[in-house]
Design a protein that fits this description.
alpha+beta, globular, 32% strand, four-stranded antiparallel sheet
């Protein structure tokens, strides 16, 4: 699964490494998600996470199907 690859890269290189792989489209979020980041795991799936640098942790908020339709 692509999430396993994502975890490997995240644990070794952090967000910097994820940003280098264009397929993940890793980006910072804003608004109510300020402080979080998002990476694509496929055409529909997305992981929303934040890093906790002092503890060298990633906190996964959700892995969800992303609805690209506008309301």
């Amino acid at each position: 699964m692509r999430f396993e690859k994502w975890k490997d890269i995240a644990s070794i290189s952090g967000p910097q490494g994820l940003r280098l792989i264009k397929g993940f489209h890793d980006e910072t979020l804003s608004g109510k998600w300020k402080g979080y980041r998002s990476s694509r795991l496929g055409d529909q799936w997305r992981v929303i996470y934040r890093t906790i640098p002092k503890e060298m942790l990633f906190q996964i908020e959700s892995i969800t199907a992303h609805d690209y339709r506008r309301s």
